[in-house]
Amino acid sequence: MQIATRSVSAALAALALVAATNAFAHGDVTPQAINISGLDPLKDSATWEETNPYSGNERAAEIGHHAFAQNCARCHGIDAISGGIAPDLRETLPLGTEGDEIFRERMINGAIRNGVTYMPKFDGIVAQEGLWAIRSWLETVSVDAPPKDAAKPEEKK
Ligand code: HEC
Q1: CA of 40 to the centre of ligand 1 (A)
Q2: Is 122's C-beta closer than 6 angstroms to any atom of ligand 1?
Q3: Which atom belonging to ligand 1 lies closest to the Cα atom of 27?
Q4: What is the pLDDT along the chain (157 residues), one digit of tens a residue?
Q5: Assigned domain for 129 exists
Q6: What are the CA-CA distances from residue 143 to residues 25, 52, 88, 121 (Å)?
Q7: Quick one: DSSP state of residue 86?
Q8: Where does the Cytochrome c domain start and stop, copy by copy (predicted)?
Q9: Which strand (E) or helix (H) includes residue 2?
Q10: pLDDT of res. 83
Q11: Cα–Cα 20 to 30 A to 143, which of 65, 89, 111, 156?
Q12: Residues 49-66: pLDDT tens digits?
């Protein structure tokens, strides 16, 4: 009986440790669920898309703007205008597949070096749909994005 009690408290202590470690690994951020209603769900949300499936989708950008405010703005700045803590994603994240690749890599791995979490990973914590929605919004605020009042962006180039 004595032993059983002890192993239970050992298990509880181990659990508490896991919880504490997780809190630290998230870089002191509480990830917020993203409401993705209005977006077509991905066929397989466990496998990462190579490129943004919602690129140019206005509803996705709207969702992404809100989700960015909840999950990313505390480091990357409100409306992605960085105050210097983290890169200014309007400038550092290229449009198109190159930017998608950088984005994807960060969502999966975060930025963790020598055991220090500079940025938490979001894969498995926030739905992939919501993360690509953030990417869709980031595309609209990119320094390379066509101006909002451009008549027909597809006529360019
Ligand atoms: C705890 C702070 C923090 C949070 C929260 C955070 N980031 Fe970051 N992010 C950083 C830092 C710091 C870097 C630079 C990492 C490095 O030094 O390698 C970074 C890098 C990036 C990069 C790579 C930029 C580049 O120029 O290479 C992307 C993309 C990115 N973050 C997107 C996001 C998105 C999207 C979110 C929200 C879902 C987010 N981050 C949340 C701190 C954060």
Answers
A1: 26
A2: yes
A3: 1
A4: 455 555 554 544 444 444 333 434 444 567 777 888 889 999 998 899 999 999 999 999 999 999 999 999 999 999 999 999 999 999 999 999 999 999 999 999 999 999 999 999 999 999 999 999 999 999 999 999 988 776 655 655 5
A5: yes
A6: 31, 18, 10, 25
A7: S
A8: 59-142
A9: helix 2-25
A10: 92
A11: 111
A12: 999 999 999 999 999 999
> Mutate which of 98, 103, 104, 106 to test ligand 1's pocket (most atoms within 8 Å of Cβ)?
106
pLDDT at 68: 97
Q: Answer yes or no: is 15 within a domain.
A: no
Ligand 1: atom nearest CA of 29 is 5
Question: Looking at the domain assignment, is residue 38 inside a domain?
Answer: yes
Domain limits for position 137:
31-146
Chain-centroid distance, C-alpha 66? 12
- List Cβ neighbours of 71 (8 Å cut-off, separation of 6 or more): 29, 31, 32, 34, 122, 126, 134
pLDDT at 122: 96
Q: How remote is the CA of residue 94 from the centroid of ligand 1, in Å? A: 14
For ligand 1, the distance from its centroid to the CA atom of residue 127, given in whole angstroms, is 17
Q: Which residues pair with 112 in a beta bridge?
A: 117
Looking at the CA of residue 74, tell me the nearest atom of ligand 1.
Answer: 5
Number of structural domains found in the chain: 1
Residue closest by Cα to atom 22 of ligand 1: 106
